[in-house]
Amino acid sequence: MLSKLIRKKQPALNSELIKRKELSQLEQLPSHISIIMDGNGRWATKRTLPRIAGHYEGMKTVKKITKFANEIGIKTLSLYAFSTENWRRPKKEVDYLMRLPEELLGKYLPELIEQNVRVTMIGNHELLPEHTKRAITNAIEETLHNDGLILNFAFNYGSRDEIVQSVKQIVNKVQQGSISSDEITEELVSSHLMTNELTEPDLLIRTSGEIRLSNFMLWQLAYTEFWFTDTLWPDFDESCLMDAIESYQKRNRKYGGLKQEEVN
Ligand code: FPP
Predict the structure, then answer these.
(1) Which of 27, 47, 91, 153 keeps 20 to 30 A from 197, CA to CA?
(2) What pLDDT score was predicted for residue 167?
(3) In the chain, what's the furthest Cα-to-Cα distance?
(4) How remote is the CA of residue 61 from the centroid of ligand 1, in Å?
């Protein structure tokens, strides 16, 4: 088994982290955190393991970060798990990634339910293999009434594709006369995106040292605070998340305006 090849990682939270976790709850927490989970392949290659071993380890990080984010009171965690461009990878790797929802959402579902986590998905699911769709649909249905953390997977997701689909829906409504073109507002566009039931992300994290958005939530990230780290996703842990949150808590979000004290 791959898991046997891979070194066990640090388990319990240390006391410093527990203190940081308590402190974080006193200050303003980001409500919605989005993560571009990057660096699984490099993590594996550095250990002369096959790339899929990095994805397996990355899946374990997903479990750890979900649990912790829920515990500290984050409301929504969006994870970029498979992009519309990831189909260009070798078939063996794509097949493995398509198995991960079963691996994660199948075996881990009882724990997610116990943690009161609600699973949602954004992306184009029509093109997914049946077994992948089944695992995703089942997790969504089984957690529908949970009201803890929303764990939102972006799977076969591309932001440009999402915007194109939204424009098509709006054009259809205008052509059918159910709305007029004057009614096309930012709110209307937002309400036609796949994220229409979610708040916009407050904080975006990308791991592995890459500094780009890779077609992720282009519309939704307009006023989001960004945080980049060189840490590879399989090495990302609770204390990395706290670093990102603490950085966010020091930011001055102005949404293009000014704070009262800056007006002269
Ligand atoms: C990017 O690393 C990561 C991915 C394309 C897959 C992310 C998947 C997981 C973290 C596992 C959990 C997923 C699901 C579906 C539940 P990369 O392969 O691009 O890394 P590299 O840039 O080092 O090659």
Answers:
(1) 27
(2) 98
(3) 65
(4) 11
- Sign of the Cα pseudo-torsion (92, 94, 97, 103, in order): negative
Measured by CA distance, the residue closest to atom 24 of ligand 1 is 41
For a mutational test of ligand 1's pocket, the pick from 34, 212, 233, i.e. the residue with the most ligand atoms closer than 8 A to its C-beta, is 233
Query: What's the 174 CA to ligand 1 centre distance in angstroms?
Result: 39
Report the top-level CATH class of 28-158+200-252: alpha beta
Average pLDDT over residues 24-29: 74
pLDDT at 17: 76
Per-residue model confidence (pLDDT) at position 75:
97
Give distance in angstroms: CA of 32 to centre of ligand 1: 21
- Indicate the domain borders of the chain: 28-158+200-252
pLDDT at 12: 60
> Sign of dihedral through CA atoms 232, 194, 244, 213?
positive
Label residue 10 exposed, middle or buried (CB < 10 Å: 0-12, 13-18, 19+): exposed
pLDDT for residue 23: 65
